[in-house]
Amino acid sequence: MNPSIVKEVEKRKTFAIISHPDAGKTTLTEKLLLFGGAIQTAGAVKSNKIKKTATSDFMEIEKQRGISVATSVMTFNYKGKQINILDTPGHKDFAEDTFRTLTAVDSVILVIDCVKGVEEQTEKLMEVCRMRDTPVIVFINKLDREGQDPYELLDELEEKLSIKVRPLSWPIGIGETFKGVYKLYDGSFRFTETAKTKIGKEVAVLNDLNSPELAKLIGDKEADKLREDVELVEGIYGNFDAELYLAGKLAPVFFGSALNSFGIQEMLDKFIEIAPFPKFRESTTRHVNPTEDKLTGFVFKIHANIDPRHRDRIAFMRIVSGKFDRNTFYYHVRLDKELKFSNPVTFMAESKNLVESAYPGDVVGLYDTGNFKIGDTLTEGEKMIFKGIPSFSPEIFKELINLDPMKAKQLEKGIEQLTDEGVAQLFRQEPGNRKFIGTVGELQFEVILYRLEHEYGAKCRFEARSFYKACWITGDKAKINEFIRFKAKNIVTDKDHNLVFLAETAWVLKTAIETNPDIQFHTTSEFKDDVLI
Ligand code: G4P
User: Fold this and answer.
1) Pairing status of strand 324-325 against strand 357-358
2) Cα–Cα distance between 54 and 429 in angstroms, integer?
3) Which of 327, 347, 372, 512 is least enclosed by beta carbons within 10 angstroms?
4) Which residues contact 307 (CB under 8 A, 6 or more apart)?
């Protein structure tokens, strides 16, 4: 253990804010930056979300892509801690991007709209958090609207997200009568003015629920209701167990209105106290602790330059252990090659800054000319790869058809690079060099066609292929060869040359599993605990 690294690790909190689109992720992010002093006025950081209606507005996509580079990681200091917020795309077609970003964080804040409650994306995101036991804090937003009853919302969270909850703040009023939140965790109430672009001015702080001042501030009826609620909540939920939260088994819940800056500081203060420091990560050979001397890190996201004249990209690396230094050679394990980085950057709102050094929990942007793909690991010489960045089975499959035989080379290069970035998954089939592209959303296909044409000069089209699932297959070699012979038209390889079975229907897959007991069918490319039996 290196004491100077321990000190840096203990300072850091790296997390992502996730939500169903429109629940208020962007607004909350901005308000956290505002409270952290990283921005002076909310509304300055543009949203990176690709608007639902903009599926064919490519310029919009390009613009958004640029913005999302800048807002990919936002860092600020708050009460002696360094907070790294990793941004996730709101659009559901980019769910894979979100899943991968979640591998690079140590905890998440899940935003829920109090009017809509738990939505489809909320459930999916929570599933991913549960897979890795990621600690989750829930922020119930938009209390200034006539939303659902707080007790009902808490029940809905427990039921639909399969996690125990424990409110740590409580709303005073709801909708028109919403006045702020009471801090259940220390029994105090900060009364502030409503403020949309700034931090609301503090009017009073009360530390006693029975103080006559309370009724003066919020009204008799509200004061009685609050006292009743607090008693009830404490009775129902018992003590908050921070260990359960860190184990991903209990979600503390905060209420507020991101737009009006209510309930944010109350959450942030508790967040920095309870949220985990940068955690260890599993590699193919061992457990890697953040406080180790030597640098290790992995790439979880790659972003192409939005200017097509410069083919460089930015690879985002999460540092797992040790210290990263500019202009120092590190070992790229997959390529078995030493690389050094003269311009590593960190991001803040819309600006990029050169970094000299970075520590576990930090994310550095590395300029790349094609050396990286998602999941790549850098070390100081050790041969190991970090686990936990699998490919999931795509949901939509299409075959990529080249429309210009003269540009076959450009197409090859383009599709290789785009799929290295994780825009989509590429499966190849021989003979014939057929290329199947798998994604989780339609939008990716539009992005791919557009980028292939504009960045690589390759013209192509897609033909729909109705596959139900891609399953990675492993097991007895002879049996697999036999299976391949029977299912040749459904067998492809992924980019790492792993065998993949594209099943047309759930029934076909079920039959294949039943009739091939010596073959394992996996739903992700990382063959662990996910065998479909
Ligand atoms: P997202 O990133 O999760 O997709 O959500 P975003 O923050 O963009 O918020 C979605 C909409 O909800 C925005 O309105 C935003 O102003 C609003 N919103 C966020 N927090 C609150 C809140 O506490 N109370 C209320 N009433 N509204 C809130 P919009 O009309 O879609 O966009 P805009 O034009 O206002 O930016």
Assistant:
1) antiparallel
2) 33
3) 327
4) none
Ligand 1 in reach of 393 Cβ (< 6 A): no
Q: What is the pTM of this model?
A: 0.85
Contacts 24+ apart (CB under 8 A), 512-515: 512/483, 512/487
Ligand 1: centre distance to CA 55 (Å): 20
Residue-by-residue pLDDT tens, the chain, 533 positions? 788 899 999 999 999 999 998 899 989 998 998 888 877 776 655 444 444 444 445 555 555 555 555 557 888 899 999 999 998 876 666 677 788 889 999 999 999 999 999 998 888 889 889 888 999 999 999 999 998 999 999 999 999 999 999 999 999 999 988 999 999 999 999 888 877 777 878 888 888 888 888 888 888 999 999 999 999 999 999 899 999 999 999 999 999 999 999 999 999 999 999 999 999 999 989 999 999 999 999 999 888 765 656 667 889 999 999 999 999 999 999 999 999 999 998 876 556 788 999 999 999 999 988 899 888 999 999 999 998 777 778 889 999 999 998 999 999 999 998 888 888 899 999 888 899 999 887 888 988 898 899 888 999 999 999 999 999 999 999 999 999 999 999 999 998 899 999 999 999 999 999 999 999 998 887 754 444 43
Closest ligand 1 atom number to CA of residue 19: 3
Nearby residues of 162 by Cβ (< 8 Å), 6 or more positions away: 126, 130
Distance 45 CA to ligand 1 centre (A): 13
Query: Residue 116 C-alpha to ligand 1 middle, in angstroms?
Result: 13
CA distance 101 to 96: 9
